[in-house]
From TrEMBL:
InterPro entries: AAA+_ATPase (IPR003593), ABC_transporter-like_ATP-bd (IPR003439), ABC_transporter-like_CS (IPR017871), ABC_transpr_LolD-like (IPR015854), MacB-like_ATP-bd (IPR017911), P-loop_NTPase (IPR027417). GO terms for cellular component: plasma membrane; transmembrane transporter complex. Pfam families: ABC_tran. PROSITE patterns: ABC_TRANSPORTER_1, ABC_TRANSPORTER_2. This is ABC transporter. The keyword Transmembrane helix does not apply. Keywords: ATP-binding, Nucleotide-binding, Transport. SUPFAM superfamilies: P-loop containing nucleoside triphosphate hydrolases (SSF52540). It comes from the Bacteria. The keyword Transit peptide does not apply. GO terms for molecular function: ATP binding; ATP hydrolysis activity; transmembrane transporter activity.
Length: 236
């Protein structure tokens, strides 16, 4: 088997200090292969967001090793960590996290502008990607002029615009109705297959498990089940 794109080894994470400390993840180890489409699921409070935040380098564990793309990332200082994150990782959040005063196109091009890419190149790439996601008629709309499903598509475009190796999505469908939830997961699945981007999404919605090639169940900060899905639901 090839080297995993993400490797967590004996990770522990707690919040708070002293007597008030709560251990959320305990001695957790996990490997994700390049190109996998994985769902992390479990009840509210089981530790899914904490796990995703550690893999996304948004937080650090007290113990353990994290290796992403062969880099021992916990050894990086904050600047190099931020640089690694912007080059290799994309994020999608349940509340979309779009900038309210910017259009769909401007929201999408933001990560490229932060990287210093020329404005007209960033604008063109954002337009092409939004068109690929079916939003060609909404380029100039602000988030409050779009539906929840459309906003989440813009958020997906923003996560993908920088060509990340890995996209991490925390409850990406929590604010969507069930038809839009299915459509968003199918879109992520299609992008995973077409672009070979590694996708991980966290959910408490077991209905979405059938779309994931691999599902990992977390309970009380531990992995209690990890399986590959042989009857994958795909777009027809
Ligand atoms: N910043 C924090 N400070 C203190 N406790 C926290 C913090 N973040 C999370 N926790 C606690 O850690 C545990 C795991 O939380 P986490 O958000 O990872 O779970 P989750 O499975 O993603 O839940 P949800 O589906 O509700 O988002 C919970 O008991 C939560 O209360």
């Amino acid at each position: 088997m090839t080297q995993p794109i993400i490797k967590l080894e004996h990770i522990s994470k707690s919040y708070g200090h002293g007597d008030g400390a709560v251990t959320v993840l305990q001695d957790l180890s996990l490997s994700i292969q390049q190109g996998e489409f994985t769902c992390i699921w479990g009840a509210s409070g089981s530790g899914k967001s904490t796990l995703l935040n550690l893999m996304g380098l948004l937080d650090r564990p007290e113990q353990g090793r994290i290796t992403i793309k062969n880099e021992a990332v916990l050894g990086l200082n904050d600047n190099r960590l931020a640089d690694f994150r912007s080059r290799h990782l994309g994020f999608i959040f349940q509340s979309f996290n779009l900038v309210p005063v910017l259009s769909a196109q401007e929201n999408t091009m933001l990560p490229l502008q932060i990287r210093g890419e020329a404005d007209n190149t960033a604008r063109r790439k954002a337009r092409d990607l939004l068109a690929e996601l079916g939003l060609e008629r909404h380029l100039h709309k602000r988030p409050d002029e779009m539906s929840g499903g459309q906003r989440q598509r813009v958020a997906i475009a923003r996560a993908l615009i920088g060509d990340p190796d890995i996209v991490l999505a925390d409850e990406p469908t929590a604010n969507l109705d069930s038809a839009n939830s299915d459509a968003i997961i199918l879109l992520m699945q299609k992008l995973n297959q077409k672009r070979k981007v590694t996708f991980l999404f966290a959910t408490h919605d077991t209905h979405l498990l059938s779309y994931a090639a691999r599902s990992i169940q977390v309970r009380d900060g531990r992995i209690v089940d990890d399986r590959h899905n042989t009857y994958l639901r795909e777009a027809s």
